[in-house]
# Entry
Amino acid sequence: MSKSRIEESLEEIRLHGRGGQGVVLYSELIARAALYEGNFARSFPWFGIARRGAPVTAFVVIGEEDKITRSMVYNPKYVVVLDPQLHKVMPGVTRGIRGGGVYIQNSIKTPDELLEELELDVKLGLIATIDGTGIAMKYMGVPIPNIVMLGAFARVTNLITFDSAVKAVKARFPKDAWEDYLKCLKAGYENITVEVLEDGE
# Structure
């Protein structure tokens, strides 16, 4: 993706999950993939209680280098949730999302089913779901959905391409892990279920 695709604006992404699900690494992979597209990107985490299973939030901002700070993202266009149940115990995952925004969640529910459970102050433009945990278990044997969700993110948002996501994975992980990781990435890209909401602003 060229810089013109960003149109000199900031693309703000907020990621939610739990400790042990790879949220911070996920943010780094998105940023790395964006760099491969020729765009400047920065990722940074925010931790609550530092323990496995506790909520973790991370941010990615893509755009012009001199406009990107390390402040938290309060009004993202894109929100991705890596935990299937987090929206029930932490309704604030949707807080601040822009009208017409994009919401992606690791879930076995359909987008319509999930939409009924979310607390929203605005109308989304798109909602998407994928069984990230199930796919990760199938190909890697561990319930860590971040690589699956990277593929889903590439498919839904067009902020990064699948090829750039592949490059990011290969740059981050040892070669003997590539086969399983790339299977997860491809499955995430190919199996995401998307519902475009006509009423999104």
The beta strands are 11-18, 40-47, 55-63, 78-81, 102-106, 126-130, 193-196. Helices lie at 3-6, 23-36, 86-89, 111-117, 132-140, 146-157, 162-172, 178-191. The longest strand covers residues 55-63.
